[in-house]
Specification:
With about 450 residues, this protein is mainly alpha-helical. It folds into two domains: about 70 residues, no CATH class; about 325 residues, no CATH class. It is about 65% helix and about 0% strand. It has a two-stranded antiparallel ribbon with strand order 1-2. Strand 1 and strand 2 form a beta hairpin. Helix 7 packs across helix 9 and helix 10 packs antiparallel against helix 15.
Length: about 450
Amino acid sequence: MLRSLWLTAIYLIFIGFGASAPFILALGYVWVDIFQPQAVAYMILNQVPVALIMGAGAVASFFLQDLRNLPRLTLVNLLQVLIAIWSCATLLWAVAPSGAVMFKWDWAFKAMVFAAFLPWVIRSKVHIESFVQVYVISLAANFIPFGIKTLISGGGYGTNLGLLAGNGGLAEGGQLSTVCLMAVPLALHLAKHNTLLPVTKVTPLGFVIIAGLAVATALGTFERSALIGLAVLAAFMFAKSKNKLGMGIVLVVLGVIIVGATSATYLQRMNSIGDYQSDDSALTRLAVWKWTLEFSISHPFGGSFNSFLINSFQLPNGSMGYGRAFHSSHFEVLGELGWPGVAMYHGCMLLVILQMRRIERMTKSIANMVWCADLANAIQTALVVFLAAGSFVGLAFLPMIWYIIAMSVSLSEYVRRAMAGQQPARGIGAIRAAAAAAQAGAVPVPSGWRNR
């Protein structure tokens, strides 16, 4: 009862404040999409189309109140839209039962479209930090209980220790562990650059604890993909660290603690990574991936959503497998959207990483834009972790992935406008304006750019 009332109050606060600020309604939709209060509440919100109301309100409020100083349409933004359109086109030649296709298309399409919309309302420094805060805290609400229970009593493969039940979304270990590791660099970014929550000595520690519980949750799922994601996360953080000796010591100490704290059951499951020939799960994955490659030759435009439902293959032991999931985001895109989808999807990811590297280089030496460099680094890290761990988990269309992309577009456009000052310069004019601002040692943020 109290949980339902509390969640309803939060929902109404988003709507109340969002009535005069479209970005708050947009962030309310992000909160609903990630945290899913309708799945946690016992009453009220579970009877209301909370996402539809929040999303429609955000779009309507934007068109009524926020059509000033609009950002430009970037290539990443365009690719988001094109992928969403292509996913609709594949419905025309879908190979899976229509109910399964439409079920996944419904939530995946909405995630892609709303993520493409977000950069149009998330434009100022305050907006961007609010976006990161809502993203991290919404995820944290799911993994904090799981992380604490893991530290107290240990985790377990297939064990639900969080808020959600079932075997989908953030209740599924592979998806939960991957997004937890993606949240780690963003939480550490907020530990350094939080300005919206009360700035005290304790606040950074709170975000560090959130990052620690995210790692604990990832390990507590006993997912082998989590170990791969954690290794990539550690390697990328070490490579990006300015103090490699200090970072190396921290990572070694954490590694020793993790190995010492893990159970024999966990170590036995992780050791199976190197013995995939005798592991049924690994052999099934390999068989599904082989089937997907063969399917992509006869269906180069993909089979639309949940096309894996028609697969059939023989395992080395002679048994047959039917309708087994892709268990890989990369093969998921290939099987569902075909080669055009693979080109657009991975092209979008690569473009985001390259843009974030460029922004990091541009802003790391400018005093009032160091936060941009650090956020660009965090976004890069999150996407690299996804690309690694997501190789073994099917979460290509999960909203959390698309919101990271939206975050990168908002940051990219903010930096572009800030570096250009208030001048609408393009081409060589923009380069000269950025160079002049950099030489001055600071970059003025345009006063007309809703920099509240």
